Protein backbone atom coordinates (compact mmCIF):
# COMPACT_ATOMS: atom_id res chain seq x y z
CA UNK A 1 0.00 0.00 0.00
CA UNK A 2 2.75 2.45 0.92
CA UNK A 3 4.62 1.81 -2.31
CA UNK A 4 1.60 2.97 -4.29
CA UNK A 5 1.19 6.10 -2.17
CA UNK A 6 4.85 7.09 -2.38
CA UNK A 7 4.88 6.44 -6.10
CA UNK A 8 2.18 9.07 -6.46
CA UNK A 9 4.33 11.65 -4.67
CA UNK A 10 7.77 10.72 -5.93
CA UNK A 11 8.40 9.75 -9.52
CA UNK A 12 11.02 7.03 -9.60
CA UNK A 13 12.25 6.25 -13.11
CA UNK A 14 12.06 2.60 -14.03
CA UNK A 15 15.53 2.58 -15.59
CA UNK A 16 17.70 5.21 -13.88
CA UNK A 17 20.60 6.57 -15.90
CA UNK A 18 23.83 4.73 -15.11
CA UNK A 19 26.93 6.36 -16.64
CA UNK A 20 28.94 3.19 -15.96
CA UNK A 21 26.64 1.06 -18.13
CA UNK A 22 28.10 1.00 -21.67
CA UNK A 23 24.68 0.14 -23.09
CA UNK A 24 23.16 3.31 -21.61
CA UNK A 25 26.18 5.56 -22.07
CA UNK A 26 28.06 5.39 -25.37
CA UNK A 27 30.46 8.08 -24.05
CA UNK A 28 31.87 5.57 -21.56
CA UNK A 29 32.31 2.32 -23.53
CA UNK A 30 34.70 0.88 -20.94
CA UNK A 31 32.15 1.35 -18.15
CA UNK A 32 34.55 3.31 -15.94
CA UNK A 33 33.33 4.27 -12.48
CA UNK A 34 33.81 7.90 -11.33
CA UNK A 35 36.69 6.93 -9.06
CA UNK A 36 38.67 5.48 -11.98
CA UNK A 37 37.73 7.90 -14.75
CA UNK A 38 40.09 10.65 -15.94
CA UNK A 39 43.16 9.66 -13.88
CA UNK A 40 45.44 12.30 -15.45
CA UNK A 41 43.23 15.29 -14.63
CA UNK A 42 42.29 13.84 -11.24
CA UNK A 43 45.94 13.39 -10.28
CA UNK A 44 46.88 16.92 -11.38
CA UNK A 45 43.93 18.37 -9.43
CA UNK A 46 44.78 16.40 -6.29
CA UNK A 47 48.48 17.30 -6.46
CA UNK A 48 47.57 20.97 -6.74
CA UNK A 49 45.37 20.83 -3.64
CA UNK A 50 48.08 18.95 -1.74
CA UNK A 51 50.61 21.59 -2.72
CA UNK A 52 48.51 24.70 -1.96
CA UNK A 53 45.99 23.46 0.61
CA UNK A 54 42.31 24.25 0.56
CA UNK A 55 42.54 27.98 1.21
CA UNK A 56 44.96 28.89 -1.61
CA UNK A 57 44.06 25.84 -3.69
CA UNK A 58 40.53 27.04 -4.35
CA UNK A 59 41.93 29.91 -6.38
CA UNK A 60 45.12 28.40 -7.80
CA UNK A 61 43.66 25.01 -8.77
CA UNK A 62 40.45 26.26 -10.37
CA UNK A 63 41.62 25.56 -13.93
CA UNK A 64 42.64 22.00 -13.03
CA UNK A 65 39.28 21.41 -11.36
CA UNK A 66 37.47 22.67 -14.45
CA UNK A 67 39.59 20.41 -16.68
CA UNK A 68 38.72 17.40 -14.53
CA UNK A 69 35.00 18.25 -14.56
CA UNK A 70 35.09 18.61 -18.35
CA UNK A 71 36.76 15.21 -18.67
CA UNK A 72 34.17 13.58 -16.38
CA UNK A 73 31.28 15.20 -18.25
CA UNK A 74 32.82 13.98 -21.49
CA UNK A 75 32.37 10.44 -20.16
CA UNK A 76 28.72 11.12 -19.35
CA UNK A 77 28.97 11.78 -15.63
CA UNK A 78 26.62 14.50 -14.42
CA UNK A 79 27.49 16.99 -11.65
From TrEMBL:
GO CC, any one term: mitochondrial intermembrane space
UniProt GO molecular function: copper chaperone activity; copper ion binding
Family: Belongs to the COX17 family.
Name of protein: COX17-domain-containing protein
Residues given in the record as Cu cation binding sites: 35-36
Subcellular location: Mitochondrion intermembrane space
Record keywords: Chaperone, Copper, Disulfide bond, Metal-binding, Mitochondrion
Broad class of the protein's primary localization: mitochondrion
Organism of this sequence: Armillaria gallica (Bulbous honey fungus)
GO biological process terms held by the UniProt record: mitochondrial respiratory chain complex IV assembly
Pfam families in the cross-refs: COX17
Amino acid sequence: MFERITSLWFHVPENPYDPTDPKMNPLNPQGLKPCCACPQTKSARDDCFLKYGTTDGDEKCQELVQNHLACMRGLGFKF
